[in-house]
Amino acid sequence: MTPLDYDFLRKCLKDRSGLVLSADKEYLVESRLLPVARKAGLANLGELVSALKAAPQDALMTAVVEAMTTNESLFFRDKTPFEHFRLTIMPALLAARRASRVIRIWCAAASTGQEPYSLAMSLKEMASEIVGWRIEIVATDISNDVLEKARAGLYTQFEVQRGLPIQLLIRHFTQSGELWQIAPDIRAMVKYRQLNLLNDFSQLGTFDLVFCRNVLIYFDSETKTDVLNRLARVTAADGFLVLGAAETVVGLTERFKMTADKRGLYVPNTSAPRLATAGKPMPRLVAVGGR
User: Fold this and answer.
1) Total structural domains in the chain?
2) Angle CA 75–77–78, to nearest 5
3) Among 172, 205, 191, residue whose Cα is nearest residue 76
4) What would the pLDDT profile of 10-40 be if each residue is shown by its tens digit?
5) Catalytic sites, residue numbers
6) Domain extent for 13
7) Is the CB of residue 75 less than 8 Å from the CB of residue 160?
8) What whole-number distance in Å separates Cα of residue 126 and Cα of residue 133?
9) In CATH, what number is assigned to the domain containing residue 121?
10) pTM score
11) Which of 211, 214, 277, 285 could be cross-linked to 244 through a Cys-Cys bond (beta carbons 3.0 to 4.6 Å apart)?
12) Dihedral angle at the C-alpha atoms of 19, 25, 29, 31, nearest 10 degrees?
């Protein structure tokens, strides 16, 4: 792979997924994209680049983006956000939404499903408190491949051992050969959709809670600011945003503010100047369903 080939791939990935690669990541690109090239019948990354230049919108480009996207995930990752969910977020939303009895949650980088399913299992644990409520979990990711795995809800022994308490494994999973499958009622609580955060997501409607964890770290500052400002437009005024442990809104946007003593938890800053939005205000969607 020549330096020009690498620069071309870096630009493609930045433009299409927001992923920013430094100049010293050639080894990573080679390790992830050589299998893509060979699967396409191409001998090397030089031929892959030539094919992408000839047909930049075809399935090969999608395969390149998906191969380079980090899909690391585990159940109840970092624990703290799920403690916030149980002890701070849900009590506040249950009090604020007593009239409508509807809560909408968006996992904006769902990967293979561990995060939205962790939220779904947490909701199951508070079943007596949410009787008669409609709680929708929308889970999106840029990669169709990982979303298919998420919909199936099948995980290896290694995957279920990473962060999943044994009592929840016993309660919500059944063994299928060497794999574990999450229960149909948990899977039905999550609706999966393919979505690129660089694109418009206003059609999803507004949400009471947005989990957007461990994805902004791969973007440059300009892209982070753009995504955060657009997240503000789809977060209810009294809603919540949860970011990853290494992520922040500080220095990027005034549309969210930190919650005191709650690492990674943010709320809309209602005193910040409103951003211009195109068209009419988005309706609040309340449809419930999942796959």
Assistant:
1) 2
2) 150
3) 172
4) 888 888 777 787 787 788 888 888 888 888 8
5) 32, 141
6) 3-68
7) yes
8) 12
9) 3.40.50.150
10) 0.80
11) 214
12) -130
